[in-house]
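name: query_chain
kind: protein
chains: 1
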Amino acid sequence: MTRSTAASLAVLLLALGCSRGGAGKPSRAPVTIARAEQRAVPYEITATGTVEPRQTVSVQSQVTGVLTDVGFREGDDVEAGRVLFHIDPRPFQAALEQAQAILARDVAQATNAQLEADRYGALVKLDYVTKQDYEEKRATADALTATVRADSAAVANAELNRAWATVRAPISGRTGRLLVRPGNLVRANADQLVVINQIHPILVRFAVPAQNLAEIQRYRRNRLPVLVSPSKQDTALNAGILTFVDNTVDTTTGTVLLKAEFANVANALWPGEFVNVRLQLYVEEKALVVPAQAVMTGQQGTYLFVVNQDGTAQAHPVTVERTSGVYAVLSQGVRSGDQVVTDGQLRIVSGTPVEVKGAAAGAPEAEADR
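structure:
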């Protein structure tokens, strides 16, 4: 054997020895863990809802005339009774004065006719006038009395028309865009002037499956809280109370309509907006939970990996009752205190040695290092 051949053989044997020595130390898969624990978890029904005003009023004029003035800015909050519009009052003032003049004339005539009827009543008893003459005077007095009543009604109507020339807010709320500008002719009960939406408080309309109706009716006496947010990722929730459950199930969709009321002090909810809704029925005080990302689905159903005391991961089949936010509520499969893998599951199987790299963010407290 030459010297170069012997050297090559020695290097090869050294490499084989190193390879066998490394094979005796299997590598550990890095994972992130969290601890299964018991905590109070609300039982919630989720849905998508639509924000709607508690009241909506389309403001119209009750008289026809020329719009002369607007007493608010578009988008203003207004109180009930606030002056919104002025319509030219001069025609209505003239009509009122005319009605008052007619009333005064007819009152004078009716008073005179009544005196005449009374005088003929005394004379007919003395046979100085005929009974027919008396009855004619009496009929004239009664007719003029009725005319006075009609004139009084005409005056009241003219006063009402003059008052309606000033258009006031029928409810408190927020005004929309101005639909008629000053100078335009406004027709009675025809032209919309502005729309007012009451948004304090405000409502959210949503539908839930009909199979949840029995539970909702069971817990409704507790003034069920409702939480809404513009998106599933938004943590700024607005809290309200369930106020309405429809009296029928929509046979087309198999759902029942519900409404919740919100104070909406900060104007976080806006009419027409779509929101995510969480209706809380009750709170399960000692629910067994794990982070939802720990649960996986395979051919045999749902499972997760539990880190054993010897540092290996073991697959455990679990039964998920429901999810609540970032948590999965389990009915069986793990015990409180078990350390479950929340990240790195795709790199391991049952019996794989693992190395804990950290705890899941926002997860129940777990040991970061073993």
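note: Residues 90-125 form the longest helix (36 residues).
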